Amino acid sequence: NGLHFHLGSQIFDLSSYVLAIKEMVKLMKKIKDLEGIDTLNLNLGGGLGVKYLESDLPPSIENFVNLIVRLISGN
């Protein structure tokens, strides 16, 4: 009852998640429209970058969660 994607690991730029989530939301709507099936779960695979080097600038969990909520809710 769900969909999953995996973007990779050590992801610093959230734009790849934006594109993937938008496409998955479209797919979820298409499945609902064509098959009448509600997709209850969306598993966001991959991993946010972590700070191994001083120059690494990983996104914050708060920004990531806010992005997900905004994209899923359509705002």
Automatic annotation (TrEMBL):
<feature type="domain" description="Orn/DAP/Arg decarboxylase 2 N-terminal">
    <location>
        <begin position="2"/>
        <end position="70"/>
    </location>
</feature>
<keyword id="KW-0663">Pyridoxal phosphate</keyword>
<dbReference type="InterPro" id="IPR029066">
    <property type="entry name" value="PLP-binding_barrel"/>
</dbReference>
<dbReference type="GO" id="GO:0008836">
    <property type="term" value="F:diaminopimelate decarboxylase activity"/>
</dbReference>
<dbReference type="InterPro" id="IPR022644">
    <property type="entry name" value="De-COase2_N"/>
</dbReference>
<protein>
    <recommendedName>
        <fullName>Orn/DAP/Arg decarboxylase 2 N-terminal domain-containing protein</fullName>
    </recommendedName>
</protein>
<dbReference type="Pfam" id="PF02784">
    <property type="entry name" value="Orn_Arg_deC_N"/>
</dbReference>
<dbReference type="GO" id="GO:0009089">
    <property type="term" value="P:lysine biosynthetic process via diaminopimelate"/>
</dbReference>
